[in-house]
């Protein structure tokens, strides 16, 4: 038995994207909150703002050199070399930190950490954000003690899984956006009705937009999407004769200057951002969201009860498409595949949802079933439960 005052060490392996790191950080923060004896460190790859994000959250970062697996003989060779190097790096990290448990949040970064932890008889758990397990998690599922799932639809052949949902960034869960389960903010989502206290006035004041006008929010992921940016810009010009809506466009840094110039001549009220840290305000004001279908985005849409037009990213496997189709199957979102994305398809769907309040309400109602507002707590409890 573990001594009551003994420090418990948990090592979290997560890819270098915001989609992997934000849920992992939310989980880590909840884990420490539930048990102050827990010490957490992160392992990722050294890209972008990863080190800054981890340190800002108050955790120690380690890094491995593993690369993503891409087609082509040269790319496969580079991947195999980086994998071998990462196994050595993972061994040194485990020797230095000496974790009691290792939690993998997908991506190839998890491979050497979870495998070596399993070999050393450490507790292991992997978290899958998407409907279908990614390649790394498919392989690791044979070795991990437990598999945490974000979608109830995910099918596994073994019984090692637990449904937890996908943890949300803490900056999205603020006062003024409380989940009303009576006095219990973390009740059983499926059995408890909930409503969001309106934050539209705060959002309208901050963004300089009208709180009572139909608002379309468009975002193409943390880096922006050139295809979505172009299609939405042309859709806006097609709709420029309407005066019954306004829009927020978060476009990423690459298209910002061009869009700023082109939007300067339209009369529709709008906000344009490269990046917006206060996403809870954008979601609060939005009546309709045009976006990708990453797991983190879907978790946020479900939390904020938003009608959405999903345009899945087609180039990173099929996981975004599978996520989107899982929602479309239960009328929880409209889906336009990128190969079918045209100005007309976007205009028709936006116009239809502006016009039909019933259609929007159906989407908002149905997407609720995908919300797990206490996913960070469920996941933390799953890990602590494995540790006894």
Features:
Rossmann fold, globular, 388 residues, 14 helices, seven-stranded parallel sheet, 2 domains, 41% helix, alpha/beta, six-stranded parallel sheet
Explain this structure to me?
The chain contains 14 helices and 13 strands. The protein has helices at residues 18-34, 50-56, 73-97, 110-119, 135-140, 200-207, 226-238, 256-263, 279-285, 295-304, 319-328, 343-355, 357-367, 375-387; strands at 8-13, 38-44, 60-63, 101-104, 123-128, 146-149, 161-163, 214-219, 245-250, 270-273, 288-291, 307-310, 334-335. The protein has 388 residues and is α/β, with parallel strands linked by helices. The N and C termini lie close together (8 Å). 41% of the residues lie in helices and 15% in strands. Helix 3 (73-97) packs across helix 4 (110-119).
Low-confidence stretches: 175-197
Give the proportion of residues in helices.
Answer: 40-55%
Q: Can you tell me the number of structural domains?
A: 2
CATH superfamily of the largest domain: Glycogen Phosphorylase B
Name the beta content range: 15-25%
Terminal-residue CA separation: 8 Å
Structural class: alpha/beta
Overall pLDDT score: 89
CATH domain class name of the largest domain: Alpha Beta
User: Can you count the helices?
Assistant: 14
Order of helices and strands: EHEHEHEHEHEEHEHEHEHEHEHEHHH
| Largest beta sheet: strand ordering | 3-2-1-4-5-6-7
Which architecture name of the largest domain does CATH use?
A: 3-Layer(aba) Sandwich
Shape: globular
